[in-house]
């Protein structure tokens, strides 16, 4: 993830000029502020700004003055109660603004989360860089036989190299034509807003993505999940680390009650109770469909 000298100088200047403030400060988040964290081959995530911390969640829940902190133990207990009972509003009092550099096809998945403010780099006004996402060999996989949305076995040998060569050659050829259409050398040159249509979905774009903590956690629950596509999961995993440093009590509660929790339907709960009572349960007698039964067995054996 190469940064230009100008970009690095701007980041260095931002981090070298701290300012006195009366607002809530998270020491963990201060360490991330402005720092570009690399993702994939050319991507990045960096925190541009944030508001609030664990105490702000408790302050909002209690509608109190000052920091709202009774004690660390009391605050953690309150946050866990809020998370456990799906009281989401206090978590909306914290916000964060990310600068993200990501492939266009990942951005199209990401934008499905419509509960954020987004401002994307415009290829109508600027010329995109010649930067494309090319998967690492261990991420080149065949279509899954069980999951229409997922990957199966990793490609190997000549086939993997052939796919990588095609991806690279097609991306470079498209960008060559993009430059040729834009060029005003001996011609008028095509407008940027039209020339961009020929660019591939693995070219990198950038945006500012501002979101409150409640909706960020919802994004992370879906995109940091093992079933999410690897490329967007790489961003979500990094953002989990940042969020853990920002609001550790809230993130730990989120991990316990959302990410690592198990959800049961009414049929699943009844089947579990019957099993604990010593009854032999089958899919046919459980009231669950075949897929739900497989998921039930994966958790409960």
UniProtKB/TrEMBL annotation:
Protein name: Flavin-dependent thymidylate synthase
Function: Catalyzes the reductive methylation of 2'-deoxyuridine-5'-monophosphate (dUMP) to 2'-deoxythymidine-5'-monophosphate (dTMP) while utilizing 5,10-methylenetetrahydrofolate (mTHF) as the methyl donor, and NADPH and FADH(2) as the reductant.
Lineage: Bacteria, Pseudomonadati, Pseudomonadota, Alphaproteobacteria, Rhodobacterales
GO-annotated biological processes: dTMP biosynthetic process; dTTP biosynthetic process; methylation
Cross-referenced InterPro entries: Thymidylate_synthase_ThyX, Thymidylate_synthase_ThyX_sf
Known partners and oligomeric status: Homotetramer.
Annotated metabolic or biological route of this protein: Pyrimidine metabolism; dTTP biosynthesis
Cofactor binding: number and manner: Binds 4 FAD per tetramer. Each FAD binding site is formed by three monomers.
Catalytic center residues: 223 (involved in ionization of n3 of dump, leading to its activation)
PROSITE patterns, A to Z: THYX
Residues annotated for FAD binding in this entry: 89, 112-114, 120, 212-214, 218
Cited Pfam families: Thy1
Transmembrane parts of this sequence: none
Family indicated by similarity: Belongs to the thymidylate synthase ThyX family.
Catalytic reactions on record: dUMP + (6R)-5,10-methylene-5,6,7,8-tetrahydrofolate + NADPH + H(+) = dTMP + (6S)-5,6,7,8-tetrahydrofolate + NADP(+)
Sequence positions that bind dUMP: 109-112, 120-124, 196, 223
């Amino acid at each position: 993830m190469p940064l230009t000298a100008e970009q690095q100088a701007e980041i260095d200047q931002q981090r070298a000029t701290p300012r006195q403030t009366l607002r809530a400060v998270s020491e963990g988040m201060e360490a991330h502020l402005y720092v570009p964290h690399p993702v994939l081959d050319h991507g990045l995530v960096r925190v541009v700004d944030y508001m609030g911390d664990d105490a702000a969640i408790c302050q909002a829940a209690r509608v109190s003055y000052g920091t709202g902190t009774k004690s660390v133990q009391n605050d953690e207990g309150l946050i866990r109660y809020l998370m456990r009972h799906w009281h989401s509003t206090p978590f909306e009092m914290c916000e964060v603004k990310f600068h993200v550099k990501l492939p266009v096809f990942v951005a199209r998945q990401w934008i499905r989360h419509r509960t954020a403010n987004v401002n994307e780099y415009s290829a109508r006004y600027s010329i995109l860089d010649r930067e494309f996402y090319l998967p690492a060999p261990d991420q080149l996989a065949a279509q899954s036989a069980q999951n229409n949305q997922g990957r199966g076995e990793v490609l190997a040998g000549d086939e993997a190299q052939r796919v990588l060569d095609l991806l690279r050659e097609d991306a470079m050829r498209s960008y060559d034509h993009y430059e040729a259409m834009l060029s005003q050398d001996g011609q008028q040159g095509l407008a940027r807003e039209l020339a961009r249509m020929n660019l591939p979905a693995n070219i990198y774009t950038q945006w500012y993505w501002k979101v409150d903590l409640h909706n960020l956690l919802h994004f992370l629950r879906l995109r940091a999940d093992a079933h999410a596509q690897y490329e967007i999961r790489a961003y979500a995993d990094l953002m989990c680390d940042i969020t853990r440093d920002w609001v550790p009590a809230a993130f730990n509660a989120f991990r316990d009650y959302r990410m690592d929790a198990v959800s049961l339907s009414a049929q699943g709960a009844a089947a579990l109770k019957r099993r604990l009572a010593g009854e032999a349960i089958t899919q046919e007698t459980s009231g669950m469909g075949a897929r739900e039964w497989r998921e039930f067995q994966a958790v409960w054996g």
